[in-house]
Design a protein that fits this description.
Layout (H helix, E strand, L loop, with lengths): L6 E3 L12 E3 L2 E3 L12 E3 L2 E3 L13 E7 L16 E6 L17 E3 L18 E2 L43 H5 L8
Parallel strand pairs: 1-3, 2-4, 3-5, 4-6, 5-6, 6-7, 7-8, 8-9
């Protein structure tokens, strides 16, 4: 097992595969995980900065208390509901077209992320902050958004009839994103 606080920088993991099944208190900086199979590898209290996860395989990849900053997850399938324990924070990450389908995300934090065209169908985003996130054309269908904080999120369209939004936080200038299906003319 890697020693706690191991540091990995500029590693192309397609050429230098991860050798252990558990990584604890490790830091990964500017590493490339593109198209790497990470199935079954556990990351606990790790930090990823500037890493590329495009095309990485993440099913059954437990992420516990993990921080991602400036990482690219474009088009990424973020796991499945049964095998993916997610307690992570994303800051300044690109998650365009990422799929969070049926995931329990209520222990996640999203700050300054591009979540355009992301799929949150049937996901649990209860009490999740989506601080200053771009949600252009993100899909919310049968999503639990109870208590979620979207006050600084932008460009979302959420149908209150299809999603649970009780006690979710919105700013008054975002009401159009909740009323889009009614084709209202709001000033």
């Amino acid at each position: 097992m890697p020693m706690p606080n191991d540091y990995f920088q500029n590693v192309l993991f397609a050429q230098t595969p991860l050798t252990e099944s558990e990584y604890e208190n490790c830091t990964f900086v500017d590493c490339d995980f593109a198209n790497v199979d990470l199935s079954g590898i556990t990351f606990f209290e790790c930090v990823f900065k500037g890493c590329n996860f495009v095309g990485a395989k993440l099913p059954r990849t437990p992420l516990r208390e993990v921080q991602f900053s400036h990482c690219d997850f474009t088009g990424q399938r973020m796991g499945n509901a049964s095998g993916f324990l997610m307690a992570v924070s994303f800051a300044h990450c690109t998650l365009r077209r990422a799929s969070f389908y049926k995931l329990r995300l209520n222990k996640c934090v999203f700050k300054h992320c591009n979540l355009g065209e992301a799929d949150f169908s049937e996901a649990d985003l209860s009490r999740v902050p989506l601080t200053d996130c771009d949600l252009l054309r993100a899909t919310f269908e049968h999503t639990n958004l109870e208590g979620a904080d979207l006050r600084t999120a932008r460009y979302f369209a959420i149908d209150p009839d299809l999603n649970r939004i009780r006690r979710a936080k919105f700013s008054s200038d975002q009401l159009a994103g909740l009323l889009l299906k009614y084709d209202l003319d709001l000033d």
